UniProtKB/TrEMBL annotation:
Classification via Pfam families: SGL
Record lineage: Eukaryota, Metazoa, Ecdysozoa, Arthropoda, Hexapoda
Annotated signal peptide: 1-27
Binding residues for substrate: 142, 144, 162
The record's free-text note on cofactor binding: Binds 1 divalent metal cation per subunit.
Enzyme Commission numbers on file: 3.1.1.17
Protein's UniProt name: Regucalcin
PANTHER family registered for this protein in UniProt: MIP34848P1-RELATED (PTHR10907:SF66), REGUCALCIN (PTHR10907)
Organism in which the protein naturally occurs: Cryptotermes secundus
Amino acid sequence: MAVSNAAFRFAAGLLTFLVSGGFRAWAEPTVTAVTEPVVHGEGPHWDAETGVLFFVDIDQQRVNKYDPATNKVTYAQFVGGGVSLVIPVKGTRAQELLTTRGHDVIVFSWNQENARFDSSENSKNLSVIARVETDADKSGNRWNDGKADAKGRLWAGTMGPEPVVGSVTPDQGSFYLLQAGSDPITEISPVSISNGLAWSEDNTQLYYIDTATGQVDVFDFDLERAKIANRRKVFNLAENGVKGHPDGMTIDSEGNLWIAAFDGSQVINVDPDSGELIRSVPIPASRVTSVTFGGPNLDILYVTTSRLGLSEVEQEQQPLAGSVFAVTGLGVSALAPANNVIPPV
């Protein structure tokens, strides 16, 4: 699926904010739709080894691959529950990937051409490696966001039922650690919408979002022991007059956070040390879901968006909602390439 030559380009304007007692100006970033719209885009992961972007469409139960060299999107179609994240398995050159489907964590082999995975259990090309929250009172839960740490361990969380988009049953989810040799370990419970994750350069801080809190929190992080402690607030959107709800997140080469603002039509850039808003990049879709850096120099910010739950009028006003956008000209890059995962089996 290639994007037409009329791909939308959006100049965010000259951005100037008060930072650490002085003013700093940035050149105009450019926001370009690089895919056709999907329903509920999420979970972007740039694979530096192969130079492609993986992302999911939760509603359509698809893992997608966007190749910027060809502008082509291919997909792996699943059944049995929404897929919410995708991470290549370390050492496989993205021929094996980890994803989530409903309550399951699965690993699948994929040649990255359009394919359908019908099996809900194990098969030649698909293995269920973990399952959580299968009790009747959690039947409406599903996995949401997650990432691998520098050791390849999976940190991921769940969310409660969402009968109406943006209205989730509170305190039904949990945040888990999945590593080899053990069942999923509950790290935080309850949570409402376990979401964005990022680690500091020295891996001593884990930044975390439970969307329902309206803020980014930080934990002390012990990489060797896989332990988190001492949760505290970094940045609350409403307290700082920022429209939207915090969703997915990444971190840049200056140690600052980039946070998707769902129902906020923007990505915000925050200094986690001072708790200050550095700048905001407008996105031509209200439901901004997640972000990651990619490209040959890791300086393109890829932004996923959603059109799920938008009215007909809103979809007409936001024709590119659901697209993946590429933001260039930010003057920063990724802190490091995204970690690939070592499956917890």
